[in-house]
Structure formats: structure tokens, C-alpha cells
Design brief:
The protein is built from 6 helices and 14 strands. With 283 residues, the chain is α+β, with helices and mostly antiparallel strands.
Length: 283
């Protein structure tokens, strides 16, 4: 079932999105050689709860942490633990938060320590494909237009793999809702669905330096590349509005990045530094 949102409900989702945005920026600054993924998870929980929000991931179908930390060949759903980050690692951090029953969901990928040109390029291509997908999230377009925009950007960036079993999703009063949002061009399944105002989606490209094929580890969560290639993952939550896409998990609503492609997002919004005030004022 696809859940449509009113403007007031999208405003509530914006508050959850701002919590996620601030948390990811805090975690980005904390990533360094010698830090464990469990320490990142603890910092995430502290940051989320400090704004009276709740972590989306903790306990979700039994998931034991507040964030997903996927390192190197891990594509998504990595479980934080005693793993120590080392110089040259690539770590994807996926984060969700709930404010008054509404979810926000976003992800970043960070290089640890010294910068490797090849890995830096992987991150640039993956993030660019995300913004191309978000720019395609306009009322009157289709889910398939998002997937095509993502795939076109990845293909233009070089020889990379796009895992096909995983992708974006609807989001709202539940973290995962219909429709599925593929990261490649297709109209199969629900990908031909028209985008209409009130629909909110999580767009999340996953890109690898090798094959698109993946497998799930014995922990029944962590997805890794079959060939051991490195993966990157970026994600934002975006609302479809009559005035254009509004990126709820970007501090500026997507104003800068969408302005390069689309003419800018729909309206002025609170910045990351204002998250605590926004959440507290409204309960």
C-alpha cells in the first residue's frame, strides 16, 4: 500500500530528516583510523535521542543497532561492532530517525584517513547518481525515471556495478513502504508508477567497483559483494510536491545540489543547527 502525505505530515517528516542530517554530519566528523563501528553507533544513538527523536533501525526486525556501518566490500546492512576502522577503509553509514511517528532515512559513505583517488571517484560517482535520481523525482514523472537517472549517471562515471536486489523505497509512518525504487532503468513491477504530490521516497544508489552480484552473510543482515569489490552507498529522503522535489534529509532541502539540475528545491527550510529547536518546539 502506498501512503500519501499531506503538507503538514511532510513537515513532520522534515523534522525527522533534519535529525538524520545532523546525526550523519556528526558521524562523518567522527570517522577516523582507530574508531570502532560500535563507537559510531553509540554516538549516533546519543545524537538522535538528544533531539527527543528515536532511532528507526534499533530493533527493526531484530536489527541490534541504531545505524548500519558497511565497510569496504559490505554493500548495506552492516552491523556495528568491534571492527576498528583503518586508514584506506571505506565506510557507509545508514541512519534513520523517528519524530512523532514519522521517519527520515539517509546514508553517506566516508573514506577513512588517506584519500585514494580510485575510491574517491567511486564515492563521487555514487553521490552524483543520487542527486541525479533526486532531480528526476518530480510530479508527473515516474519511478522508472529515477532509476534511469541513477543508472545513466553511474554508467557515465565509469565501469561500476549496480546491485539489483536492493534499492530505494517509500517511507512515512513506516521506514519501508511501497513502492520499490530501483537504481536502474526498468518499468517492471511498480517502476512505471507516476510520481504525484504527497509521495515520499528514499532514493539510495549502491555502487561497486566490480560486479553487481552480492550475497548475505551468516548474520542474515550484512550484504557483501560476491567478488570482494568495494561498495559505496548514498541516500536521501525526498518529498514529491507540486513545486518540485524537497530533500527532507538535506540540511538545505537540496537547494544547492538540485539548483544545479532542476532550478532549486521547493522552499526555505531550517538548517541542521536548528534541529533541536524545531523538534522541541513542536513536542
Amino acid at each position: 500500500m502506498v501512503e500519501m502525505k499531506t503538507e503538514a505530515e511532510i513537515q513532520r517528516m522534515r523534522q525527522a530528516g533534519l535529525v538524520v542530517a545532523r546525526t550523519l554530519e556528526v558521524l562523518r566528523g567522527a570517522v577516523a583510523p582507530g574508531v570502532t563501528t560500535r563507537e559510531l553507533d553509540e554516538l549516533a544513538e546519543e545524537t538522535i535521542r538528544a533531539t527527543s527523536a528515536q532511532p528507526s533501525f534499533l530493533g527493526y526486525h531484530g536489527f541490534p543497532a541504531c545505524i548500519c556501518t558497511s565497510v569496504n566490500d559490505e554493500v548495506v546492512h552492516g552491523i556495528p561492532g568491534d571492527r576498528v576502522l583503518r586508514t584506506g577503509d571505506v565506510v557507509s553509514i545508514d541512519c534513520g530517525a523517528i519524530v512523532d511517528g514519522w521517519h527520515g532515512d539517509a546514508a553517506i559513505t566516508v573514506l577513512v584517513g588517506a584519500i585514494d583517488a580510485g575510491l574517491q571517484r567511486l564515492l563521487e560517482v555514487t553521490e552524483e547518481s543520487l542527486w541525479c535520481g533526486l532531480a528526476a523525482a518530480a510530479a508527473g514523472s515516474r519511478i522508472s525515471d529515477i532509476g534511469k537517472a541513477v543508472e545513466d549517471a553511474v554508467r557515465a562515471g565509469g565501469k561500476y556495478g549496480i546491485p539489483r536486489e536492493y534499492g530505494g523505497h517509500g517511507i512515512g509512518t513506516a521506514m519501508h513502504q511501497e513502492p520499490f525504487v530501483p537504481n536502474y532503468a526498468t518499468r517492471r513491477g511498480g517502476a512505471g508508477r507516476e510520481l504525484v504530490a504527497g509521495l515520499v521516497l528514499a532514493v539510495e544508489p549502491m555502487v561497486t567497483t566490480g560486479s553487481h552480484r552480492s550475497r548475505v552473510l551468516d548474520d542474515e543482515w550484512t550484504v557483501v559483494t560476491k567478488d570482494g569489490s568495494v561498495a559505496a552507498h548514498f541516500e536521501h529522503t525526498v518529498a514529491i510536491t507540486a513545486r518540485g522535489p524537497w530533500v527532507l534529509t538535506a540540511a538545505d532541502g537540496g537547494r544547492q545540489r538540485l539548483g544545479e539540475r532542476y532550478g532549486g528545491p521547493v522552499e526555505e527550510t531550517a538548517g541542521v543547527g536548528e534541529v533541536s529547536r524545531v523538534v522541541d518546539d513542536d513536542g
